[in-house]
Amino acid sequence: MKNEILLTLSLLMLSSATLADVKDEIKQTFNVNSSAAEFRLNNVNGDVDIIGWKKDIISVTAIITAEDQEGRNRIEVDMQENSRGVSVETRYKKTNWNNNSSGSVDYEVNVPVGTRLSDIELVNGSLTIKNVSGAMKLQTVNGGIDATGLANNSEISSVNGSVDVSYIDGIEQLDDISIETVNGRVVLSLPANINADVEVETMHGSIKNDFGLSAKKNMFTGRSLEGMIGSGDVQVDIETVNGSVKIKKN
């Protein structure tokens, strides 16, 4: 009986070891001009965190997780610096029998505060941005977007996921905020003293705001809001199909 128990335990341990994920980490840094830094990232599976800091360096850490070593070998992380800035892309090597894209890559990125996030695209994963004041274009398919400390023009879209965006005071360079979702709510936080021309459309969801603007029910379906805050210098456009919209004061 004792030998049978030991054999069973050994088989369980072997099975657990076989099923254990393979993890790998790649880190690379780039010396950049903080006043003109630009960053791009394209990821298929995995979350991305981008945080601004007071260094003339872009630091990228890629944390790769796969079911086995073979799966790990199919994942490539391409980091390059060129005249257009720093670009990062996750690629999955094709096999003879399919285009396997299993496994994931989570990214932890630090950029100079004023960096322009010119093209951040995620397929399956959430995106978090903190204290980056440059202009940005953000897109996710399946995953939410949470961006705080913004101060410049932004173009933000999500297919399946909520969008939470917060702007700081002192945003003289800001001209345009555009947010679109298909399935997901939108929460936009703005400085109380902002001057904005606001347009909101939602097919299925409520519209609320802290600036005293009035939403109306459309003739056939959905709700909309059009209104001016102060002199209306900043154009704010929000569209969602299935989700509520809330515009808050910071």
Q: What does the secondary structure layout of this molecule look like, with pairings?
A:
Layout: H1 2-19, E1 22-31, E2 38-45, E3 48-53, E4 57-66, H2 69-73, E5 75-82, E6 85-92, E7 104-112, E8 116-124, E9 127-130, E10 136-142, E11 145-150, E12 154-160, E13 163-167, E14 176-183, E15 186-190, E16 196-204, E17 207-209, E18 215-217, E19 223-229, E20 234-242, E21 245-249
Parallel strand pairs: 2-6, 2-8, 3-7, 3-9, 8-10, 9-11, 10-12, 11-13, 12-14, 13-15, 14-20, 15-21, 16-20, 17-21
Antiparallel strand pairs: 1-4, 4-7, 5-6, 16-19, 18-19
What would the keywords be for this entry?
250 residues; mainly beta; 11-stranded mixed beta sheet; 2 helices; disordered N terminus
Strand order of the largest sheet: 5-6-2-8-10-12-14-20-16-19-18
The mean pLDDT is 90
- SSE topology string: HEEEEHEEEEEEEEEEEEEEEEE
What's the count of strands? Answer: 21
Number of helices in the DSSP assignment: 2
Into how many domains do the coordinates divide? 1
Structural class: mainly beta
Radius of gyration: 22 Å
Give the amount of beta strand, in percent.
over 45%
Given the C-alpha coordinates, what overall shape results? Answer: globular
Largest sheet: 11 strands, mixed
Poorly predicted sequence stretches spanning 5 or more consecutive residues: 1-18
What's the helical proportion of residues? Answer: under 10%
Measured distance between first and last alpha carbons = 68 Å
Oligomer: single chain
